[in-house]
Design brief:
33 helices, Domain 2, N(10)-formyltetrahydrofolate synthetase, 4 domains, cytoplasm, 33 strands, twelve-stranded mixed β-sheet, alpha/beta, Rossmann fold, five-stranded parallel β-sheet
């Protein structure tokens, strides 16, 4: 009957049957799976369950919002409470009450007797009658003088389970009788040999009662109807909860002067991360908490919300910075806080995970600053959830695998090498799954290891790596300059197989770039396998999968692919994920974090997108011409995402440097020109801002300039930047004081961004992948940097030719260069022209999917200054709090 009724009501219903031998654990696991399935709105467990299974455990395991039977402890508990608010009322008791209400029975002050005290009918119906202001008596098998209680009943509800137990002479004339009993008695006239009857002797009771329900055909159909109603209510509630996103801001207590970043971070009590997740529509089972204030988010969110239209996408970039930075991360947080905490829009900040190298070096952390930052900032700046450690482990496993493979190839014959690579186990050899990838690449169509020819064995077993071509280096997350060049293999056990190599910082690893660009776990697996670590002596590329390490690297990084959720100072959500080095990689957070955030900030098909759409504010490393160019030509090309607005962060201080002001040196006092009004030098320096604006407009996306206001900036200086920005084609240039005021200080800026999002886009990329590698590098150098030409060294040209011949000539380009100039030369300020960009080397990131060209001398592992940041860091051993981070 339930299946038929569900079908008639267009409710999809599935019956899952279990054998009587099913264990309690198996049943609870299945219920948990159904609880986490958003396509399931109601779960009904047919009671009773076998004796070896706890009925309480089973009914309690059903999620409260799917407990359409209403038997869970929360629903029953709320029903029993005066003023309680159960999500669902048990179906049969609910049907009883509807029958009474539809029959016009006024229960207020009436004597209601409930015969039976089961948790299925008796007890819950007594709660409902009491809520209707009846005077309720519950009778059961131990009740004395039962007939006297029944004689006083104005309303009788019987669920005692005894056929035709209650006689008419026991009842008060005019009583209303609801018979819930379902009992069978022998009946020869029935085909089944039995007849369904209730608890009431219908013939005698119907002569006394004013109203009486028959059995069958009375309460039974109402039970099914109420079950369907509960399912519909559950589906409606589920939908409402999924589209309801409401961020509850944390209040700020602003202080003047503004305290240190760590002091401000510590002054705010963050929300529990599960509350942050719930506010933005992430379900509990989609969250993996790491402590109280950070968590990983399952990629299943993307599948669940795939139907949504994406929210608005904003990329924050900057002008060419000084060594002190211009507040790009601070601005990103300020915009997110303004939108989420002050303008009632769902807003995410999406940022990279900072490397511990710069955190303990000269730069410090990357949480933002002042009252616009990620909190807790110590957790953000240090280990977070261990993603960088996973990258380090994966990278170094591959490095060890390369050295080991070369060692064994150089010390064994073909047959011995093959025998150890594919050993016999219990008299049988088998290729491992990853080996079939190499067999396919070699064109060896054979699954039986014993049937390879001698030549095939040699091809399969020997990678024959040319050591001088190996580009894969070990990494660590420390600024250790003395590891830039090392010699490995000097121990006697390595039999003279030493070679020169070096270390990179962990965030410079191609594994990190792959984490940032992967669209899912499978994509990450394929990209890791495609990484080229060097070339054979025959000139063929050797990949991670050739070595057989792609699966192992994926295993080490499988949790790292899940974005990390944190919050800003005002409790708005932040995704912290991936952290590719901005010098030699894309310098942007992950594609997956962007896609998940855009769906969480997006709109349902029936919602007004302009009114309801939220915002995802991400950032690109360094200035627009570096980070922004890579963001568009590599990240957007890979992800298919296009920003609605480009924000360029500018400061009076940096523009004065570009106008001819004296150099800014970290740790040294600022020249007075940076603390006094000087509109002439400022206007001259705006040539740098104008160039970044014109570069951004090439991509056909609206541009808004964020003027990150310092306390020494004057109104006249702010006005100069506004004039120059708008003249260069920006939609607007808006000052913001979010460092000192949090989101409040970026409200006008955020309103300008909202307005710019409504502008038409004419998106286009800088270059096509169809041309030559040289033409793409020249397009970047000439159109973005302002160069007259690009010059390739002999080795760079040789590598370009080699990559092209091997099928890697159609990849996008990442140029590694200084961040302190539009050019390759850090001393060329403003917007230089007429120079030649020297490309000294070109390297391949086949897994990440780009070529990176090195302009001038770029270090891939920084060094520590004379007075590094770690000198300030200590721990209060009484409280465990970390001091000295900035």
């Amino acid at each position: 009957m339930k299946l038929k009724a569900a079908e008639e009501a267009s409710i999809e219903c599935e019956i899952i049957r279990f054998p009587v031998t099913t264990t309690e654990t198996e049943l609870l696991n299945k219920i948990s799976q159904l609880n986490n399935d958003f396509s399931v709105h109601g779960i009904l467990v047919q009671l009773p369950v076998p004796e070896h299974i706890s009925e309480y455990a089973v009914t309690s395991a059903v999620s409260e919002d799917k407990d359409v039977d209403g038997f869970g402890a929360n629903n029953i508990g709320e029903l029993a409470k005066r003023g309680g608010k159960p999500l669902f009322t048990p179906c049969t008791p609910k049907g009883v009450m509807v029958l009474l209400q539809e029959s016009g029975i006024n229960l207020k002050g009436k004597n209601a007797v409930v015969l039976g005290r089961s948790d299925i009918v008796g007890n819950p119906v007594s709660y409902l009658l009491r809520r209707a202001d009846a005077t309720v008596t519950v009778c059961h098998r131990e009740t004395q003088n039962l007939e006297e209680h029944l004689k006083n009943a104005d309303v009788l509800v019987s669920a005692v389970g005894k056929p035709q137990f209650v006689k008419g002479e026991w009842l008060k004339p005019g009583v209303v009788v609801i018979d819930v009993g379902t009992n069978f008695i022998p009946c020869e006239s029935k085909k089944a040999g039995r007849q369904l009857v209730g608890d009431i002797d219908f013939d005698s009771a119907s002569k006394v009662a004013s109203k009486i329900t028959p059995v069958p055909g009375g309460v039974g159909p109402m039970t099914i109807a109420m079950l369907l109603q509960n399912v519909v209510d559950a589906a409606r509630r589920s939908y409402d909860e999924q589209i309801s996103r409401s961020i509850k801001p944390l209040p700020l207590i602003l202080k003047t002067p503004v305290p240190s970043d760590i002091a401000i971070s510590r002054s705010q009590q963050p929300k529990k991360i599960n509350n942050v997740a719930a506010e933005i529509g992430i379900a509990g089972h989609e969250l993996e908490p790491y402590g109280a204030h950070k968590a990983k988010v399952s990629l299943d969110v993307l599948k669940r919300l795939g139907h949504r239209k994406n929210g608005r996408f904003v990329v924050v970039t900057g002008i060419t910075p000084t060594p002190l930075g211009e507040g790009k991360s601070t601005t990103t947080m300020g915009i997110a806080q303004a939108l989420g905490a002050h303008l009632n829009r769902v807003a995410f900040a999406n940022v990279r995970q900072p490397s511990q190298g710069p955190t303990f070096g000269i730069k410090g952390g990357a949480a933002g600053g002042g009252y616009s930052q990620v909190i807790p900032m110590d957790e953000f700046n240090l280990h977070l959830t261990g993603d960088i450690h996973a990258i380090t482990a994966a990278n170094n496993l591959l490095a060890a695998a390369i050295e080991t493979r070369m060692f064994h190839e150089n010390t064994q014959s073909d047959a011995a090498l093959y025998k150890r690579l594919v050993p016999s186990k219990k008299g049988k050899r088998q290729f491992t799954p990853i080996m079939f990838r190499r067999l396919k690449k070699l064109g060896i169509n054979q699954e039986n290891p014993d049937k390879l020819t001698t030549d095939e064995i040699r091809k399969f077993a020997r990678l024959d790596i040319e050591p001088s071509t190996i580009t894969w280096r070990r990494v660590l997350d420390v600024n250790d300059r003395h590891l830039r060049g090392v010699t490995v293999g000097t121990a006697a056990t390595e039999k003279g197989q030493s070679r020169e190599t070096g270390f990179d910082i962990s965030v410079a690893s191609e594994c990190m770039a792959i984490l940032a660009l992967s669209s899912d776990l499978n994509d990450m697996r394929e990209r890791l396998g495609r990484m080229v670590i060097g070339f054979s002596r025959q000139g063929d590329p050797v990949t991670c999968d050739d070595i057989g390490a792609g699966g192992a690297l994926t295993a080490l990084m499988k949790d790292a692919i899940k974005p990390n959720l944190m919050q800003t100072m005002e409790g708005t959500p932040v995704f912290v994920h991936a952290g590719p080095f901005a010098n030699i990689s894309i310098g942007a957070s992950s594609v997956l974090a962007d896609k998940i955030a855009l769906k969480l900030a997006g709109t349902e098909l029936d919602e007004n997108h302009n009114e309801k759409a939220g915002f995802v504010i991400t950032e690109a490393g360094f200035d627009f011409t570096m980070g922004g160019e890579r963001f568009f030509n590599i990240k957007c090309r890979s992800s298919g995402l296009v920003p609605d607005v480009v924000v360029i962060v500018a400061t009076v201080r940096a523009l004065k440097v570009h106008g001819g002001g004296p150099p800014i040196v970290p740790g040294a006092a600022l020249n007075k020109v940076y603390a006094q009004e000087n509109v002439e030098i400022l206007r001259t320096g705006c040539v740098n801002l104008r160039k970044h604006i014109s570069n951004a407009k090439i991509y056909g996306v609206p541009v808004v300039v964020a003027i990150n206001k310092f306390e020494t900036d004057t109104d006249a200086e702010i006005q100069v930047i506004r004039e120059e920005s708008i003249a260069a084609g920006a939609e607007d240039a808006i000052p913001a004081n979010h460092w000192a005021e949090g989101g409040k200080g970026a409200i006008e800026l955020s309103k300008g961004i909202i307005a710019a999002c409504e502008k038409e886009k004419d998106f286009k990329l800088l270059y096509s992948l169809d041309g030559s590698v040289q033409s793409r590098i020249e397009a970047i150098g000439q159109k973005m940097y302002g160069a007259a030409s690009v010059e390739f060294s002999e080795i760079a040209q040789k590598k370009v030719d080699m990559y092209t011949s091997q099928g890697f000539g159609n990849l996008p380009i990442c140029i590694a260069k200084t961040q302190y100039s539009l050019s390759h030369d850090p001393d060329l300020k403003g917007a230089p022209t007429g120079f030649t960009v020297p490309i000294r080397d070109v390297r391949l990131a086949a897994g990440a999917g780009y070529l990176y060209a090195l302009a001038a001398d770029i270090q891939t592992i920084p060094g520590l200054p004379t007075a590094p940041g770690y000198l300030n860091v200590d721990v209060d051993t009484e409280t465990g709090e970390i001091d000295g981070l900035f």
